[in-house]
Design goal:
Rossmann fold, 363 residues, four-stranded antiparallel sheet
Amino acid sequence: MTAPLLEVRGLNKIYRSGGGFLRAPREAQVVKDVGFTVGRGEVFGLVGESGSGKTTIGRMLLRLTEADSGEILFDGQDVRALGPAALRGFRRRAQMIFQDPFASLDPRVRVGDAIAAPIRLHGLRPAGSVKDRVVELLEMVGLSAAHADRHPHAFSGGQRQRVAIARALAVEPELIVCDEPVSALDLSVQAQVVNLLADLSARLGVAYVFISHDMAVVRHLASHVGVLYAGRLVETGPAAAVLGAPRHPYTRMLLAASPRPHAAGRRERAEATGEPPSPYGREPGCRFASRCPHAVAACRAAEPPLDAFADGARFAACIRAAELGPETAPAPEGAPSPAFQTRMALLRAARAEGRAASPDAPA
């Protein structure tokens, strides 16, 4: 078997708040014992509610945020042990696309210069050919040479995200961490950018860690999925299996909250009320037990491990995972909602045409 491009083992992150007068210091464990692998050219979807720790994990993978413990192995190399020079080389091979395309671009810098900067920094092209490479990258993401001389404010949200993608691709990375890259965009623009990312992955062989709370997008793009709840992976495995027949009640709740209406989903969503547990001083037992419609007394006694079941390709942190089979998974009832139909139609249409989607609007 080919060694994975990225292997994460036992990743942990604790944020500490200083104490004060008559107040003891506090610790919030926002990521606990997270582990997963990403193969070369693979898309790994990391899904969960806001505040579940997804962005923290994405930043730790590139050492934009330092992990407290655990291993991050990139092509067999321990990322956490890299010195400054080696870390610079690693960041050429691994890039990040942020959620807000406007905040991630310097408003004073023309987009052509923003894309050229990392090419010059890493010496990837002779000085005389950098401009040609910038034009090539802009065209690769559906823009044109004329856009190189414009500033970020002259672009729409979808176009700015295309610029951010071009800048990430400028250093020819093997891995890109995509942190909610379409959540700030309109529905039709989301479809264009998602298909662009899918086409680039297929064409260039780049792998993604795709962070999102949108199950429809993850279902379309990812080959493997990890479901994160309150800082811990609760289910992981092939996307088709996890999203088609979820074995953890939290995964089922996320799917029930998607735009496709179905009776089983509405019942489970109604029963799974409440909020995620506080990261300060967690209670023993399963983190989801207080919201879970299937919880029993044993669920509150000890936190269940992320165990394999069935064919060994899937893992779930639930003592009742074997009971929650396909026959109890949310089943479709009636037609999908108009919003869901629109999104899926746009995704299918752009993919069927075999091209990157066109820019969302003229600048």
